[in-house]
Write a structure and sequence with these properties.
Largest sheet: 5 strands, antiparallel
Shape: flat
Structural class: alpha+beta
Helix content: 10-25%
Order of helices and strands: HEEEEEHEHEHEEEEEEEHHEEHEHEEHHH
Oligomer: single chain
Strand content: 15-25%
Number of strands: 19
Distance between the termini: 58 Å
Strand order of the largest sheet: 15-16-19-18-17
Length: about 375
């Protein structure tokens, strides 16, 4: 509250809903309504909730979502996790580390949207920590038992028992009761926006963050909000709008330069396109892999360091389309990769970005050596 006041922001608490053009009605807990009318724009940033799939008995079993998993005051004796994505793997890592007996039930593999080696390394590490990882396994039903635990039935007839069940199978937008119909949109849907974060067909309605379904990551939502705030101010002042790709008023990075860290052990850090995504987009690519454990700095960082790195090169432009690292503390390598991808730094120039010895950052030199020195 002090920060908002100091920044000149008026905070109105309550449930907000669109009730007209540039109009929001906020209903307080006591039922009192305040009507706010914007001179220029209204921005929606209501976020998302965990999706609970239509699995027999799941809702009645009162499952945990990421909210309960990250706010629990006690560690259950055992935890079953339905899902194989980021939340599933991070919570499996955390609760196994806290002493819970953890079972992960995934329809396919783990971290399916990332490079395959990332999911393979995380799967192996979880199993080494005693986590039961069931891959290619569908969940057919869930029952809360008389003793307070849960039974999870899988498609192959297996029954998994646990004290709690966490569902980590995606997100759903918080747009069901915020008056989207007033703006010609469908309540309960994600909100489509252009790269300036404005709703197409509107000159006043914007959205940012998870609710746009562009990238469901906190840091990317903040990036979108900065673009939206700047362009709203520019349009209100009649100033020029820089809405070409990578301009000051667009969230271009959402499309092919998104950085992400999965806080498992080992960590996974990635930016840009995977090899599969790059091929699907029509790029002519070369994939370069390197064993992170062979870098001199890795042996200093940890005994028995195990990890892997991959860069995806656009062979026509000789720039990086994507980079993925998997290994202990690789999150700290990510921003250099993000700069290389966003800046479309030519590989010939990257040779002159000399990594310090002996650090894990020497992985850059090894990847470039594997690709081959420039001849010009």
């Amino acid at each position: 509250m002090e920060w908002a006041t100091g920044a000149g922001i008026a905070l109105v608490r309550g449930h907000g809903a669109l009730t007209g053009v540039r109009e929001v009605t906020v209903t307080a807990a006591d039922g009192a309504a305040t009507v706010l009318t914007a001179r220029h724009a209204v921005a929606i940033a209501t976020g998302s909730d965990a999706a609970v799939p239509d699995i027999d008995g799941l809702r009645a079993a009162r499952p945990w979502t990421s909210r309960e998993a990250t706010s629990a005051r006690a560690v259950p004796e055992s935890l079953a996790i339905i899902g194989g994505g980021v939340v599933a793997t991070e919570m499996a890592t955390a609760y196994a580390g806290l002493g819970a007996r953890v079972t992960v039930i995934a329809r396919t593999g783990l971290l399916g949207g990332m490079e395959p080696f990332a999911g393979e390394l995380v799967t192996a590490a979880l199993r080494e920590r005693g986590v039961t990882v069931l891959l290619g396994t569908a969940t057919s039903g869930v029952t809360r038992t008389a003793d307070g635990g849960v039974e999870i039935r899988t498609g192959d007839g297996t029954t998994v028992t646990a004290a709690e069940v966490l569902v980590a199978t995606g997100r759903t937008p918080r747009t069901g009761d915020i008056g989207l119909e007033t703006a010609g949109l469908t309540p309960g849907d994600w909100i489509t926006v252009d790269d300036t974060m404005r709703v197409p067909g509107s000159d006043w309605l914007y959205a940012a963050g998870d609710v746009t379904h562009r990238v469901l990551l906190t840091h990317q939502g903040k990036y979108q909000a900065r673009a939206a705030g700047d362009v709203i101010a520019a349009r209100a002042a009649g100033a020029p709008v820089s809405d070409a790709p990578w301009g000051a008023h667009v969230a271009t990075a959402d499309h092919a330069a998104v950085p992400q860290v999965v806080f498992t052990d080992p960590q996974v850090a990635s930016v840009g396109l995977t090899a599969a995504a790059a091929r699907a987009a029509g790029h002519r690519i070369r994939v370069v892999d390197y064993d992170l454990g062979r870098v001199a700095g890795a042996s200093l960082h940890a005994d028995g360091y195990t990890g892997s790195a991959r860069m995806v090169v656009d062979e026509e432009r000789r720039v990086l389309l994507g980079v993925t690292f998997a290994g202990p503390d690789v999150a700290e390598l990510l921003h250099s990769a993000t700069i290389a991808v966003v800046g479309a730094v030519p590989l010939d120039r990257l040779w002159h970005a000399v990594p310090a010895y002996p650090t894990v950052s020497e992985i850059w030199l090894r990847l470039l050596e594997a690709y081959g020195r420039p001849t010009g």
